[in-house]
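Fold sample X.
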Amino acid sequence: MGLFSRIFQRKPQESRDFYYTVKCNRCGEEIKVRLDKLSEPSPEYDEKGRVTHYIYRKDVLGQKCFNLIRVEFILSPSFEIVSSEVTGGRLIEPDVK
């Protein structure tokens, strides 16, 4: 590896996407959902202005029925799921990468 390629080599960036799958209680459809870490979660701050956690809420609608699945996550500052609540369905798989 030459000097220039080491200088100008891009560092691997952490993905800004987070995928999870929910299953509808009514029809059983499994729906894979993408969460954009930079724009969708709302940060919560402490008195000193530091992010303590993120709140993420999303309504998911599948293609097989009109059952609305409501998802709420509390995420740590490093975007790990601290707690989750799903109504109208259930969380199958958080594909955290």
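Fold sample Y, listed below.
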Amino acid sequence: MLNKINTLPETCLYDQDKHIYYLVYTDCSVNPSQLGVACSKNLLEWEHLGHISILDNENTILDAPHIMKHHGEYFIFFARVDDKISLTKRIYLAKSEEITGPYKQQTSKPILDIGKNEEFDSGRVDEPFVIYDEVLFHMFYMGAPRENINKEQVGYARADKIDGPYIKVKYNPVLKFGSSYDEFTVADPHVLEYKNISFIFYSCSGKITGSKEYGSSPWLTAIAYTKDFKTYKKLGLLKIRTKDPSKHRSYFRGSCLIKNGNLYFVYTGQDYRRQFYPMLAYAPLSVLDHLLLRIE
């Protein structure tokens, strides 16, 4: 994978026109954190292409980019810190003809804003992931309340245009706190569509992971699914086998893609010094078929 410490992989995109994999990530090795992009022909050897410039955002804190290619152009959904004291985040959209940029922000206002005082996302909306079904753009995101921005759960909004407006559903959060493995964190959603099922991978923490409070590590990855964007069910933890457990105190964030009969998971590993590493895992596509057997 990309040899860059304190880099958090976000979205891995296969560009069918160029036959190249692109990875967008958050670079936490610089202050303030910046967005970056890398490319690969085989998912194993990566070339760092540099930081991404989003015009008029040069001195702001950016995080959690999700990239999408739509009608031949590249769109990045990203979170921006709009208040450095409260750490309030909102979600914005930028566009470029080239994946390396420069990107131009599409609207002066956020495409997804924080909720009202009593709502679960009144303090922060973050970590967007968007899929398009030829009719609607479906956005999953992490939200947290103003009184505790580490109390993270997953919300859902949709729009008929890529730049919104994105309308939140009334039954948010769609993925709520559970027990044992996700009682303290439900965050970082990313979606994989397979055989008419939307599998939602998300970061989680709870007593079983060794976490003791909202938003605290270690973070692992869990799986849920939906058939209709209305009803959601959890499937449990994703297991990763590794020869290097030292970098797997946490394994979370990132995204999945299907290629050549395999399921690939590009994610963030964390060691016991709390440093982050880009990581790659894979499994035969049959693992998804086994999950389908558990779906009603």
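Sample Y note: DSSP finds one helix and 19 strands in the chain.
Also: The first strand starts at residue 7 and ends at 15.
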